[in-house]
Amino acid sequence: MTLIVSLLLATLCTQLCEGSFSLLSEPRQTCAGYAGIADAIAALTQSISNQTPATDPLIGVQTNLQELLRLVTLHESCNDVTGPSGLYRVREGNDVPTFYFCETELLGGGWTVIQRRTNGQTNFTRSFNEYRDGFGHPEQEFWIGLTRLNRITSSSQHELAILMDAFDGATATVRYTNFKIAAEADNFRLSTLLGFTGTTGNSMSTNVGKTFSTFDRDTDSAATVNCASVWKGGWWLDGCGDSNLNGFYNGATPTATPKTSMVWTDFKGASQSLKRSVMLIRKYRP
C-alpha cells in the first residue's frame, strides 16, 4: 500500500508541477519539488530491485517507476543523457525546463531532435511567431523553435545532422560540424553552416547567411514571389533555394511545379516530396 500511495503521489506531483508538454509554446510553471520526487522514485526503484525475484509482479512496477524517474529528472542538455532515446526534461535553451526528444543511440548519441516530419499530420504552414516559439510534439511531427535554436547554438559550437527517407525506400544522411542561428533581431539568420559531409549533396549551401522566411514575414531575396508561401513552410531562403524540409508534405506523387513541397533537391530532386526527415543538433565532438 505504501508503494502504491507513493507512486500515485509522485505521478500527481509531476502532473501538477509540469503541466502539458504537447506543445512547446504552452506556458509552464516550475516545480521546487522535482528533485525530491526524483530521489523518492529512485529509492523506490532500488528497493524493488533489491527485494523482489525476477518473476515478481512488482518488476512491472519497477519498470514504470524507471520511466517516471526519466521524466522528472532534470538534464542540462541531451548531451548529458545516458538512458535510452526518448523524452527528457532539459534546461538548455529554455527559461523553464522543457521536454525534448533526446537521441542517445544514433551517431554516437547526445543529439537533440529539432525537427521531425513523418506523415504530414502536423501543419508546417505556420506564422513567423509559431516558428519562433516551436510547435508539435517532440515524439511526433515537431519544430523546436527558433528562439531555442539561437540560445542553444550561440552557447557553444554545435553540429547538425539531417536524416532523410524517400518514398522509394532510399535514405540519405548529411552532417555539418558547425551550425549557428542568429537572434530574432536578425530574423534568426543561418549565420554559420560549415563542415559538410553526407551521402547526398549539400542542398543547404545557398542558405548560409540567409534569414528565416515565412508566409507572413517574407525575408527571402526573391523580388517577385514569397518563397515561403510557395514552399508552404518556413525556412532559411535565398530566393526559393534548393531545400525546404518544412515544406508541404505532398506524399509520394511528384509535384507539378518544382520547389513547392518538402524537398532536398540533391537527394530526390525539386519535385519529389520526401517521406521523412529528422534534424538533430549536439555540442560539437571533434
Automatic annotation (TrEMBL):
Keywords: Disulfide bond, Signal. SMART domains: FBG. It comes from the Eukaryota. PROSITE patterns: FIBRINOGEN_C_1, FIBRINOGEN_C_2. The keyword Lipid biosynthesis does not apply. GO terms for cellular component: extracellular space. Residues 69-285 form the Fibrinogen C-terminal domain. InterPro entries: Fibrinogen-like_C, Fibrinogen_a/b/g_C_1, Fibrinogen_a/b/g_C_dom, Fibrinogen_C-term_domain, Fibrinogen_CS. The keyword DNA repair does not apply. Residues 1-19 form the signal peptide. This is Fibrinogen C-terminal domain-containing protein. It comes from Anopheles culicifacies.
